[in-house]
Amino acid sequence: MAVSVDEAVSTGPARDRTPPARRLGGRGRSALEVALLTVLAVVMLFPVLWMIETSIKENRDVYAVPAQFFGFTVTMDHFKDVFVGPDGGRSALSVAFLNSAVVAGVSTVLATVLGVPAAWAYSRLAVKARKDQLFFILSTRFMPPVVVVIPIFLMYRQVGLIDSKLGLILIYTAFNVPFTIWMMKGFVDEVPAEYEDAAMLDGYTRLQAFWRFTLPLLVPGIAATAVFALIFSWNEFVFAIFLTSSDSVRTAPPAIAGLIGGTTTDWGLVAAASVVFALPVLVFAYLVRKHLVAGVTLGAVRR
Amino acid sequence: MAGIEVTALHKRYPDGTVAVDHVDLSIDDGELFVMLGPSGCGKTTTLRAIAGLERQTTGDIRIGDTLVNDLLPAERDIAMVFQFYALYPHLRTRDNLAFPLRAEGLPKAEVRERVAEAARLMRLDSLLDRRPRQLSGGEQQRVALARALVRRPRAFLMDEPLTNLDAELRADMRTEIKHLQGELGTTMVYVTHDQVEAMSLGHRIAILNKGRVEQIGTPLEVYNRPASLFCAAFIGSPPMNLIEVEVADGKLRSQGGLVLTPPPGLPRDRRLVAGVRPEALEVTEPGAQRSVPARVVSAEWLGDEIIYAIDHSGQRDVRVRMPPTVRFAADAPVGLRHTGGTPTVYDVHTEELVA
Ligand SMILES: Nc1ncnc2c1ncn2[C@@H]1O[C@H](COP(=O)(O)OP(=O)(O)O)[C@@H](O)[C@H]1O
Ligand SMILES: [Mg+2]
């Protein structure tokens, strides 16, 4: 944490530049804001920076006392180790990353395909006891995974889903569908039902009206929802570690966790694996960042 | 083209709300029929039931000679214009207009021709390549109207299409809609909560209240003989004065001594209310002939007329419409005189017209 203190102190001059006699509002406040934000940014980003640094340090620099922030030898060996096994073939970690991508991707697609039409139905159709149903759907998320993992484990063992990607995909889908329904219902509610009404009067069936008019307007909402579902599945640890055991099925979070422990821990490898693990989500979230905050309709809504 | 017959319509939403209690309507072929009523009285629900967007709980709907209860919206051959215009946001005006025709599978040449015709009718030629968000509210409304008429449906349904426009534009569009309907001769059901719009547009008006029809009639009938206290209070700006009266010596007499000619066939021994239009009263100098003493509460000068609120034996809101040349100060003692013909008379308990 030495660095964060250093950095925090270094923001001092920025504050000093504003003479105390200056008016309290305006620039004075904004300088204070800048200072606070800088402190905040440093505190928040330090672990990330440290992870990235560790991933490109040689192992002896990792353990150096005092810690080295600059001037260490940069190496890409750890990243190579993430993907290439000691025998020159694919490493167990790279298989785990692939598994993670498959499990997260497929479960997100499934949750979206199931959840979006359900959200539309809850928003548009006269569903009996709609509120109760929606509450029930939400209530399935009240249970933390760790509480239900044992019963799930027993059930999975009965039906032979233990240690299979399909098993993980199903459980992640089950967890993401309620979330997708709730989040998408908000987005569907935002799209005026009159588009569909007009389309139905124009000669389309209800389903065609949904498909051709409402769905295109929902794309930003679907993107936002899918990113959240994807992040959940990608990061999920508890189910993954309980329900899988073999290297060929295991996803990245338990695989990375498995690197720690034993007699020695290759912290460089752990850090490199973590960087690789964090990247896809960051990139994906960055790509859809506009949708994450944007309104849903394409305009023309004057109520 | 076709008339529309609504029989004993009743609609209860799944949450238990009874939006339409009992509605009977018989709309003639080629008629411009207005449904008028306060917000929440079931106008939209009735219209959506006619369109097939909402299934009625009980009751029958016929368009032309066809019972349409079980037909899909698309099979009913009607067009609807929504309060929120519902133009497809990702389509240009041209494609918004062509859309219903393409859905029907018309040949391209005919689609182009019909779109051009509708665009000419609604003066949209310069707007054909814009998207909805590049159009003003009035322009969007014209596109919505054009989209409704491009299909040449058997009937138009309009749900408060002018509510989102500003006052001036609304008056223009009103004229335009009326003209268009006359030109095309297509049956139109027009829903509004604005009585001025209803009076100026409708061949006939149905006044709805709490999911029931209170009165159906021409604008003149509805204005001159409101069928219930609700209609009396709803139509006219300011609305009818409702003055409690008693029958005495063959005359109607208010508490403050105002004397009105009773209509024939008045029931006795019932509490009655007389409906008197603001223009059927007159503010006079105090003590003028046949006048009763009263007091000015306030005066609203509207340019071409003055609306006086008069205190008449404790009833403080008797409205009187006077020409702008006659001025009385607030609080001035004045006379109040009835100048019109026979008033309408309502039973206080049933709230209905008795004579
Ligand atoms: N989908 C619905 N579900 C439940 N109640 C509704 C629904 N739509 C309208 N209502 C209720 O039905 C009544 C009539 O509504 P509506 O037909 O929209 O009235 P109006 O168009 O005359 O303002 C209102 O009390 C309204 O709250
Ligand atoms: Mg309405």
Automatic annotation (TrEMBL), chain A:
<feature type="transmembrane region" description="Helical">
    <location>
        <begin position="168"/>
        <end position="188"/>
    </location>
</feature>
<feature type="transmembrane region" description="Helical">
    <location>
        <begin position="209"/>
        <end position="234"/>
    </location>
</feature>
<dbReference type="GO" id="GO:0055085">
    <property type="term" value="P:transmembrane transport"/>
</dbReference>
<dbReference type="InterPro" id="IPR000515">
    <property type="entry name" value="MetI-like"/>
</dbReference>
<feature type="region of interest" description="Disordered">
    <location>
        <begin position="1"/>
        <end position="24"/>
    </location>
</feature>
<feature type="transmembrane region" description="Helical">
    <location>
        <begin position="96"/>
        <end position="122"/>
    </location>
</feature>
<feature type="transmembrane region" description="Helical">
    <location>
        <begin position="31"/>
        <end position="52"/>
    </location>
</feature>
<feature type="transmembrane region" description="Helical">
    <location>
        <begin position="267"/>
        <end position="288"/>
    </location>
</feature>
<keyword id="KW-1133">Transmembrane helix</keyword>
<dbReference type="InterPro" id="IPR035906">
    <property type="entry name" value="MetI-like_sf"/>
</dbReference>
<comment type="similarity">
    <text>Belongs to the binding-protein-dependent transport system permease family.</text>
</comment>
<dbReference type="InterPro" id="IPR050901">
    <property type="entry name" value="BP-dep_ABC_trans_perm"/>
</dbReference>
<protein>
    <submittedName>
        <fullName>Carbohydrate ABC transporter permease</fullName>
    </submittedName>
</protein>
<dbReference type="Pfam" id="PF00528">
    <property type="entry name" value="BPD_transp_1"/>
</dbReference>
<keyword id="KW-0812">Transmembrane</keyword>
<feature type="domain" description="ABC transmembrane type-1">
    <location>
        <begin position="97"/>
        <end position="288"/>
    </location>
</feature>
<feature type="transmembrane region" description="Helical">
    <location>
        <begin position="134"/>
        <end position="156"/>
    </location>
</feature>
<dbReference type="GO" id="GO:0005886">
    <property type="term" value="C:plasma membrane"/>
</dbReference>
<keyword id="KW-0813">Transport</keyword>
<keyword id="KW-0472">Membrane</keyword>
<keyword id="KW-1003">Cell membrane</keyword>
UniProtKB/TrEMBL annotation, chain B:
<keyword id="KW-0067">ATP-binding</keyword>
<keyword id="KW-0472">Membrane</keyword>
<dbReference type="InterPro" id="IPR013611">
    <property type="entry name" value="Transp-assoc_OB_typ2"/>
</dbReference>
<keyword id="KW-1003">Cell membrane</keyword>
<dbReference type="InterPro" id="IPR008995">
    <property type="entry name" value="Mo/tungstate-bd_C_term_dom"/>
</dbReference>
<dbReference type="InterPro" id="IPR012340">
    <property type="entry name" value="NA-bd_OB-fold"/>
</dbReference>
<dbReference type="GO" id="GO:0008643">
    <property type="term" value="P:carbohydrate transport"/>
</dbReference>
<dbReference type="Pfam" id="PF08402">
    <property type="entry name" value="TOBE_2"/>
</dbReference>
<protein>
    <submittedName>
        <fullName>ATP-binding cassette domain-containing protein</fullName>
    </submittedName>
</protein>
<dbReference type="GO" id="GO:0140359">
    <property type="term" value="F:ABC-type transporter activity"/>
</dbReference>
<dbReference type="InterPro" id="IPR027417">
    <property type="entry name" value="P-loop_NTPase"/>
</dbReference>
<feature type="domain" description="ABC transporter">
    <location>
        <begin position="4"/>
        <end position="235"/>
    </location>
</feature>
<dbReference type="Pfam" id="PF00005">
    <property type="entry name" value="ABC_tran"/>
</dbReference>
<dbReference type="InterPro" id="IPR015855">
    <property type="entry name" value="ABC_transpr_MalK-like"/>
</dbReference>
<dbReference type="InterPro" id="IPR003439">
    <property type="entry name" value="ABC_transporter-like_ATP-bd"/>
</dbReference>
<keyword id="KW-0547">Nucleotide-binding</keyword>
<dbReference type="InterPro" id="IPR003593">
    <property type="entry name" value="AAA+_ATPase"/>
</dbReference>
<dbReference type="GO" id="GO:0016887">
    <property type="term" value="F:ATP hydrolysis activity"/>
</dbReference>
<keyword id="KW-1278">Translocase</keyword>
<dbReference type="InterPro" id="IPR017871">
    <property type="entry name" value="ABC_transporter-like_CS"/>
</dbReference>
<dbReference type="GO" id="GO:0055052">
    <property type="term" value="C:ATP-binding cassette (ABC) transporter complex, substrate-binding subunit-containing"/>
</dbReference>
<dbReference type="GO" id="GO:0005524">
    <property type="term" value="F:ATP binding"/>
</dbReference>
